[in-house]
Amino acid sequence: HPSPLLRLVPGLLLLLLISRPAAASASTVVTHLPGFDGPLPFHLETGYVGVEEETGAELFYYLVESERSPGADPVLLWLTGGPRCSGFSAFAFEVGPVKFVLAPYDGGLPQLVYNPLSWTKMASIIFLDSPVSSGFSYARDPKGCDDVGDYSSSLQVQRFLNKWFTDHPQYLSNPFYIGGDSYAGKVVPLIAQYVSEGIDKRQQPRINLKGYLVGNPMTDPKFDRNFQVQAAHGFGIISDQIYEAAMRNCKGDYINHVNQMCAEVLQTVKSLISEILDAHILYKKCVFSAPKPTNDATARKNLLEESIELNEAPGRPAIDCLTYGYYLSYFWMNNNMTRDALGVKQVKSQLCIARNIFQIIH
C-alpha cells in the first residue's frame, strides 16, 4: 500500500567536504531555524555520525527531545521511505514538530510554524538520513553511496546507534523503539534484529530496545502489488462486478496474467487506479514536483553520470496540491542560512550526491 505522503529527499545535493574521519561525530544544538518566528519551543540537535571508515560514510540526524519528560519518555529512531529519502520528510511532513506555511512562494524564504500534533510531545525522536546519500548524509568515496543495499544500510544504522548512544548515555535507560514507513518497512525489522543480537551478546552500549513499528510498510513487491485489486475494491475505486471478474479469472494472482480474460480485467483496474492519486486517494491528483526516481541501480548511476542539475527548482504545483509543501521545502533546505543553522558541512567538492529530491513510493 503506497505511503500517504510524497517522500522527499530535501534536495540539496550536498557534495560535502569531509573535515574529520568517519569514526568521529559532531553535533550542533539548534535554537533558531530560518523562517521560524522566535526561538524553537523544543530542543533540537543535529549532527553527523561516522558509520564506515573505508568510504568515509557519515549519517546526518535530527534529534528532537520529548517535550514532556525527556529523561523518561521513549526514544524513537525514525526512518523515512524511498529508499534514499531524508529524515527531514518526517520532521516537517509527518510526525515531527514543524510544518510549512502553505503560502504562495514569492522567492523568499518559506515560513515554518510549530506542529502541535508532533509525536515529540511524548517521545524523543531521532530523524535519520539513511542510507548514505539521503539528505545530508554522505561519503568521501562515491562507492559509499552506490554500493549500499538494505542489509549494508541496516548495519550502518546499527553502527550509528551504537555510537550515538555512546555519545548520549543519558538516553540508555529510556525505552527505545525503531520505526519507519513505506520502504523503511524493509529495513526496520533488520535493524531491530541486529540491535537485538547485539543485546544478546551483551555488546556495549546496552540499548534498551523495546520493539519496532512500521507504517504503510513495503515488504516484497510480489506481495504488496498482489493486494492492489483488493485495496482498490475496498476503497470503492473498482466496482463489485470488476472485482468479481478479477477474482474469477485471475485466481488470486494479480501480477502474472494467467489468461486473456485476467489480462483484460487487470488493464481495466489499472486504468481506474490511474485516475486517482494512489499515494492518497482523497487528495487532488497533481503533477509531481520532480521526476519520479528509479529503484534500478544502473539507471541511478546513469542519472549521476548525466550530471542532472539538482540545484534547479522543481516544477511548481498548485497550492492546493499535496506536493506544494515539498516544493517549498526545496527552497528552504537549499538556503545557506538553513544549512548553516543545521550545522551542515560546507560544499567543497563533488563527493557524493543526494540524487533524489522528491520520491513517491510504489
Automatic annotation (TrEMBL):
The lineage of its organism: Eukaryota, Viridiplantae, Streptophyta, Embryophyta, Tracheophyta. Belongs to the peptidase S10 family. Residues 1-24 form the signal peptide. Keywords: Signal. Coiled coil: none annotated. One of its GO terms (molecular function) is acyltransferase activity, transferring groups other than amino-acyl groups. GO terms for biological process: proteolysis; secondary metabolic process. This is Serine carboxypeptidase-like 19. It comes from the Eukaryota. Pfam families: Peptidase_S10 (PF00450).
